[in-house]
Structures are given as structure tokens and as C-alpha cells.
Amino acid sequence: MKQSPYLKGRGAQQNTPNKFLNHIYEQRDDFLEFCRLEGEEADTNRTQYIPIFPKTIVNKVTSPDVGMQFSMNPYQGCEHGCIYCYARNAHEYWGYSAGLDFERKILIKKAAPELLEEKLKSKKWKAATIVLSGNTDCYQPAERQFEITRKCLAVFLKYRHPVGIITKNALILRDLDILKALSKNGLVGVNVSITSLSEETRRLLEPRTTTIAKRLKTVKVLAENGIPVNAMLAPMIPGINSHELLKLAQTVADHGALSFGFTVVRLNGAIGQIFTDWIEKAMPDRAKKVLHSIQDCHGGSLNDSRFGLRNRGEGKIASQIHDMAKLARQKYFSDKEFPKLRTDLHEQFKDGQMKLF
Asked: Where does the Radical SAM core domain start and stop, copy by copy (predicted)?
């Protein structure tokens, strides 16, 4: 089949088959030729916002590797289009592809703030940090229009409940007023994802994300306003960004981050095919080397489902990455500590206002 042109502004370059569906959709050469002759677009490459209506919004996290107890996601799918994103596979549960559909069909949960409030008011609920963006970025482009994340943060503040945030979008600074109020009570921690200091690398890996300069500014502004920041230098991809780990750690420390985390990339489920197709088109000169290096970190496979190892990796390359991280913590973070969020205030505000008696 004739190879399609590289889709600029997108991570995935194809729609992989959905493992839960019997039928496979593909674009045939004769259809593409018909569109050319008719002067029509075979693929508009536009983003669609699709409302969905979940009954609950807070998810219990059972994985021992993730480092969170509960998460919530105002959106499913993510227009940022990060090629390595582990969340891509979740889109298949909704009947879509983990490839381009994940970036172009964004599911919107408009009722998220009301569902969250219902959860926090429940007598059975005991306060524990709920992380926004456990799956997809809560500050992706859709948030500018729908403001679901901002409304959820207002609920957390109303009920004095701890909340964590993971994002790679500078849009979070729009909500600095609420974040400062939460931080004043020790109720918020922000994880800013920064995977490279190279804009060229960023554009290829994460095509619709905030620039590196704006992300570093975001870390600085948050820190200057007393909001604790952890930098997520993840994933480390051998042959693409792993050599930057020390410099990344130094840079985020200089901008005010109190800690950093990282993972060694793994390409689970459909992501292996999506990533392989992408790197052969985006970085053909180093594709084989990068893929072999990833396999070296996971016992010869692109995927790794072993708890305790899947995010850490193993082998010489993974060990080198961990050694760099250890050195970075000693050099740049020895006098820094990310605070534990408070859970003791929520019970007093169970009804949305402080109980006097």
C-alpha cells in the first residue's frame, strides 16, 4: 500500500486496529486516488470533542508501580499526542483506536465537578490525595474551552481536600488563584512533565504540547507562589532523551522543582506498533538503534508487564539511567523535599463549610 505523508502536528501516524472490535478500518489506495481526483480531503485531521456521561469520576488505582491511590480524568484521549503515552490503550475500551483516534477524538466529562462533589460529600469517603491526570492531561487544549479542571479544583478547595496534578501544559497558570488557596492549606502538589530540553525533540515526541521554555517558566512561577512542584522527567527513551537526564534535573532544580521522577519507556499494547511506525517515519536514521535499546531494557521486548520492573527497566542501559538519576538527586536535590499533602482538614468541611460544633 502507498505510504501516507507524515502528519505534522500529530504523534501517531496511523490508526491501529482495536483489539476489541471484529472489523478493521483502512484507507485503500483507490479511495485516496478518488479523493485526489475530486479535490477532496481523505482525512481532515481535525479534533472532535465528544461528550460522555460517566456515573462516577474517582478511580481507585491498584497498580503498585504508579505511586497514587486515586485518580480522576476530566477527559479521555489527549490532543497533546505524545507518541509514547501509556494511556493510548485505554481509548480502545471506548471503541476507538489507540493511534490517531486517541489524539483526535477527545471524550468530555462535563459532569466531572458534580460527580467529584458527590464523592467528597459521601460519609464513607476518607480523605486521600486524588490525582488529576492519572491517565490523560487535565490541561490539554480542550480545557481552555470547557474549564472542567478549574471547576474540579474549586470543589477540592471548597471541601479542603488534597489534590495532585500531572500536566505538561502551561495553561495550569490560568488557575493560579485556586492553586495558591489550596497550597496555603497544604492541599496541592503539581507534577510538571518535561521530557527534553530540545524543542526539536519535543515537537516530534509531543507535537501539541507547551514548549519547553513555557514549561520551565511554569515550574518557576508555581514555585515562586509557594506551590510544590515535582518534575516528571519521563519517560527516558534510550537514544532520544536519556542522555539529557542530568541536565534536565539540574535545570528543573534551578527553576524551583523540589524533586523529580522518571521512568524507563515501555511500549505496552498497541503502543509498540504505533511507536515503531512513528520512529521509522520521524527518525529513520536511528529507528533500529532506539527500538533495540528499548528492548534491551525489557528482556528483549518493547512491552513489559512485570510489576516492579516495567517502569524501571533492567539491563545495562536501564542501570546507566538509574545511576544518572541517583547522581542528579545527590547533586541537585539533596537539600530539597516534596511535602506530604494534608488529609486532616477535609472532615471539618464535609458539607462544604467549616463545622463549628
From this structure: 64-301
